[in-house]
Structures are given as structure tokens and as C-alpha cells.
Amino acid sequence: MTNKSRSTAIFVVVLFAALLIVVMLFINTSEDDFSTRPTPFAQLGGNFTLTAANGDVALSDFRGKAVVMYFGFLSCPEVCPNSMSVIQSAFNRLSDTERASTQAILVSVDPNRDTPGKLADYAEFFHPNLVGVTGTRSQLDQVTRQYGAYYDFADIERAGDDYAVEHSSRYYVMNPQGKLVAAMRHSTTPNELTAQLREVLSPAL
Prior knowledge:
The chain folds into two domains: 1-34; 42-201, Glutaredoxin (3-Layer(aba) Sandwich). By secondary structure, it is of the alpha/beta class. α4 links the parallel β4 and β5. It is globular. It has helices at residues 3-29, 79-93, 96-100, 116-126, 137-147, 156-159, 190-201, and strands spanning 49-52, 55-58, 66-72, 102-108, 130-133, 151-154, 164-167, 171-174, 180-184. It has seven helices and nine strands, in the order αβββααβαβαβαβββα. α2 packs across α7.
């Protein structure tokens, strides 16, 4: 091996070692937990208790009904109202018997601004089978973890009362036994949600 080839080989080895050290330092100092993985869908869901205008509301209160749940907030300019309209339209497509066995829950992840009273007025506007609930930050963190949902406050310290809330947008559908059976995408149509609710209800009706 010539001196030039030997020098090139040494340089490549040193460069590789340096890159490896940098990567290891990043992994050891980063706040991200590279050991975590998304929770499998089969492990998502479960009972919870949050607060509505008339007191505490638990998912188990609606045992025997199909439940569709959505995480959002009242100051949401477009996504949340559109999602509530999808739920409203889906419910209106159900028969009277089906609708009597169906419940919707709006979970507000913005408890600082969304009081139970405001949530009640908002829910009533869309459908009588919709209830608005919220809770403490720790309660909301627990419920969002249970369902694999996400929310985060953007510039809350600088924006005053005009801050935005980033959040996932899905329709979580539970069967009459309270088991999560679907997490439907934001682009779900009323017809698709109606079909999912009917599928969930069919064994019970």
C-alpha cells in the first residue's frame, strides 16, 4: 500500500469514528426518547372521567351505546367546527332507534378557556346527543395518552388569550361495551362515520 493510500484509509477511519461519536453524543443528550414506540391500537382506549356542565361524565356512563369521541377546543377556527358538523350530519343519517343508542363526546384540551358551561352551549348547537367535557391538564394528558391523541399549546406565554392549540384530529369510535374499535381520520365523511356507527350498533339492535 502506498503512503497516499494509507493516509486515505486512515482519514476515512478517523472520519467514520468522529461521525460515530457525534451520533452517540446526540442520542445521549437529546430529549427525545428513541426507545419509545407508538402504542399498538389494541392497547388504546379505556374508561375515563372528565367534567361536563352537569358534573362528572365517564365513558362507562354510556355503556350500551356506540360512542364517537373527538379531541378539540372551542376557539378552533375551522377544524373542530367542521368535525362537529361531520358528527352532526352522521347522527342525522341514523334512524331514530340507532340515534337513541349513539352518543358523541367532545373533549376540550383547552381547559383554561373552555369552561363546562361554554362546552354545554357549544355541544347543544350541534346535537342533543353531544356532550362537551374537559378536565385538568393532568387528566387530559392521561386521556390523550390512553387514546393515542396529541395536543400542544403554541406560544401560550406570548399570545395571551389568543393562543392556538395544535391537536390531532380523529374520530374515536367505541362499541356499546366501551371498547375502542376505530380511530377514523380527519377526512372522514358523514357517510363513512354513519356506516362505522351502524356497524358497531348492528349486534346490539
